[in-house]
Structures are given as C-alpha cells and as structure tokens.
Amino acid sequence: MIDLLIYLLGPALIALIGRALRLWFKAVREQRQQETLRTLSSNLPTTGEIEIRDTRNDGSQLHIRINTTPGTARP
What we know:
Blueprint: H1 2-42, E1 49-55, E2 61-67
Antiparallel strand pairs: 1-2
C-alpha cells in the first residue's frame, strides 16, 4: 500500500518541490535586483539625466534611463 502511494505521489511531489525551488530562486533574484536599483538610485544627482546598464552573472540585463530634471518627462 505504501509502495503504491509513493509510486503515485512521488513524481507529483518531486515536481512540486522543483517548482517551489524555482519560485524561491526567482524571488531571491528579484530581491537582489531591487536592492541594486535602490543602491543605484540613492546615488543619483538631484537634476540631470543618468543611464544605467547592468549585466548580471546569470545573463539578465538591466537598462534604465532616468531623467531627474523637473518638467522634462518623455513618453
């Protein structure tokens, strides 16, 4: 009986654990990206424009252009 339960539920449990691990790693990666943005934005000048290009070890990229001059918003 226990063998049957393991046989039937084993693959589903392994898939569920794998999904949970992928979600956890994604959440950690996004948290690191947010921390990077907070750090970079804390060093911005009060006026002007700055462009940031960042490539991480995992190959993900961040490209952002920030214009901090009042009244010069672009679509």
